[in-house]
Amino acid sequence: MYYNEMFDGEKVREAYTSLSDWVERMPEDLRQMKQAEAEALFRRIGITFAVYGDGGDPDRLIPFDMMPRVFTQDEWRGLERGIRQRAKALNAFLNDVYSRGEIVRAGKIPARLVYQNEAYEKAVVGFMPPRGVYSHIIGTDLVRTGRDEFFVLEDNCRTPSGVSYMLENREIMMRMFPELFRGNKIEPVDGYPELLRHTLESVAPKKCQGKPRAVILTPGHFNSAYYEHSFLANLMGIELVEGADLFVEGEFVYMRTTEGPKRVDVIYRRIDDAFLDPLTFRRDSMLGVPGLMDIYRSGGVTICSAPGAGVADDKAIYTFVPEMVRFYLGEEPILKNVDTYTLWEDDDYKYVMDHLGELVVKEVHGSGGYGMLVGPRSTKEEIETFRKLIQKNPHNYIAQPTLALSTCPTFVEEGIAPRHVDLRPFCLCGDRIELVPGGLTRVALKEGSLVVNSSQGGGVKDTWVLSE
Amino acid sequence: MLSRTASNLFWLGRHMERAETASRLFEVGARITMLPNTEEGYRNEWESLLRASAASDLYRRAYDEVNEENMEKFMIFDRDNPSSVASCMYNARESGRIVRTALTSRVWDALNVAWQEIRSLGPGQEDAADLADMVARHASTVHGAIDGTQLRNDGFHFMKLGNALERADSTARVLDVKYFVLLPRVEFVGSGLDSYQWQVILRALSAHRSFHWAYGDDVSAGRVAHFLILNGEAPRSLITSVHEALWHLDSLVRRYRDDVPHTARDRAQALADRLNGLDIDEIFYEGLHEFLTDFIIEIGQIASCVQADYFHGRG
Predict the structure, then answer these.
(1) Considering CB atoms only, which of A220, A240, A244 is closest to B101?
(2) Of A135, A194, A204, B36, which is most buried with the most CB atoms under 10 A?
């Protein structure tokens, strides 16, 4: 049985009592009207999620579900402590593997997984970023399987997206159902942009004088997350720049403005490492800034997240995060990992190949719900196709047991029904570690589906943390 | 402000105005075809429009016949035609999307709604007058939102500058349609047909009422040309548009002071001075078409100077 976030058998869990009344009181036609209103609002403000190459509407909306997902203060505190702990350990790991590599020397993590990793950037070896922070925004994906059972699915240490939905979902809910917010004590999330700006400014490079100038670097308006980039820039009151807006001269990075060049101190980049600097990485990149890496390494500019941060969020490295917590912090991990089979190890390989139909298999570098096999929901052919892929390149895959993801009541065609959810809170690391109470809840809208990714037709919900 | 942002705001202003021009030109065409046209030499008014908007080649690549149906597709809906209403609205909205951070939510909303509506339409659903009304209505909403909600900062001036320069260009082109193309034969000048065509031009610029308030009943070439070129009270006249462009350029120069070049302002000032000193007889003596051609080139030069002064970033 799946853990139901709202019901314990027939009984409504305490956190959800007022929501349950609300749902019961709401007439069906009002719900439909509100749903249409929500969609119109999303479209009007232009929150769309572009999925290119599938022949669909390039301005597609992510389906928004009006039924919130609720955490009690206690539940949230536990999660928050666990996430902070993980964030600390991940940054300690990054510092370590780009300097002395103690964890590898201690035999806790195989050297090959770190130093042969695609995301490992030799270009930053020996470099200590301001305040020792490599990953400044960490999106931790969590699922729940029981009352006190939370599992981390993955850590996104590069450029996790979705925070704009966390903020907009709340905005839309408050606009449509103000009475819900009057009746419930819901912790606000709208301090996020301010915290993000503070985080960025707190990691200004050593050569920065005066108030740091931070910018967001976007690949441009064709990118699927462009809305989020401009939304965040707007809320923080900082410039949203493209590579061509920046140039390097002398010891600094400048942006082109109508009043001539202006110095840039901190770049919150939303483009991949490979595109940051054509002189260091991909030569054909038009998205980056030639010479940026030299300025970065000489302390003229800070890049958030630091190039190379991706080595910590790899699905292979993931299995070692609890080890990192013990190694660097001397603590026991608060949040659990999902048991993970690594296909490059013989025992695991054999087990996985024998049980493909029960497991979830993922590409080590895959994302967005692509390149994965959900055993129990796949056909024989799909399983055999995957078997061949794994045989060809076992290093490229991990496997996990199919988790009994919790469900949350969700408005669907027929009324209200349980659908599987996950959660992505956003953790900010600068001079201090900060989280706003909440995150992005994604919901699989298809009955029985365990895949919540927006690129796979998942939707989103507002996430509430109740205050005491 | 980022140079790219400034450039997008400038083009947002230009594209909104250009969308309006395309729908106005289409309406002019549709109205003129309602005239009895037995005279040889101006059989196909649509041809004239194409020539005036310098789009003949592009048109011929996609369409066989020049008729109203195709012209509607081409001028209103065709996304391969960069000057069609749909292309311009799309581009205006796209510029807006790129610079969301520099727009108020009202302006974005107006742009977005305009684009959603034009996108939902197809050829043959509305007549020319309704289309022109719709485009003008959306343009007014966007202008109203800009005027009513935007900070009077550099971004505002770039948007309005794009608007003013485009308007100068478009009024000149609409005028040119009439003078150079629609009346190929000199003996029509002063005829009833001539007068009707001038009325159509005024109407296309939403200026037929204001013209009568300003000049009385007599619609003659000299008066209409005076109204649309030299009358500083006419909202779309060349002189008004140039003065507005100049006002925004002056504001930018004041704002940015001496460390930013101001070749565009200087050039606009020179053009305004020249227009101030002209009378309509001199223009007709020089040749209206020649005058308009020079004017359109000069507006293009000012736009290039804007580019060099502000959009380059001097990196």
Answers:
(1) A240
(2) A135
Which structure tokens are listed for A358? 């029960």
Q: Which two tokens stand for residue B29?
A: 């065409």
Q: Which helix (H) or strand (E) holds A71?
A: strand A64-71
Contacts of B311 in chain A (CB under 8 A): 258
Q: Are the beta carbons of A256 and B154 separated by less than 8 Å?
A: no
Contact B314 A258 (CB under 8 A): no
* Contact call for residues A419 and A410 (beta carbons, < 8 A): yes
DSSP secondary-structure letter at B179?
I
Handedness of CA B241, B243, B244, B249 (dihedral sign): positive
Residue of chain B whose Cα is closest to the Cα of A247: B315
Contact A85, A429 (CB under 8 A): no
The encoded tokens of residue A182 equal: 């009057």
pLDDT digits (tens, 9 = 90+) for A20-32: 999 888 888 888 8
Mutual orientation of helices B105-120 and A28-45 as an angle, nearest 10°? 100
Q: Enter the ipTM.
A: 0.80
User: What's A13's DSSP letter?
Assistant: P
Is the pTM higher than 0.90? no
Taking CB atoms and an 8 Å limit, are A244 and B4 in contact across chains? yes
CB-nearest partner of A260 from B116, B311, B314:
B314
Query: Degrees (nearest 5) of the Cα angle B172, B178, B180?
Result: 85
Among B100, B112, B260, beta carbon nearest to A259: B260
Does residue B122 have a pLDDT over 80? yes
For chain A, the distance separating the N- and C-terminal CA atoms, rounded to the nearest angstrom, is 30
Contact between residue B136 and residue B20 where contact means Cβ atoms under 8 Å apart: yes
Q: Cβ contact (<8 Å) for A256 and B314?
A: yes
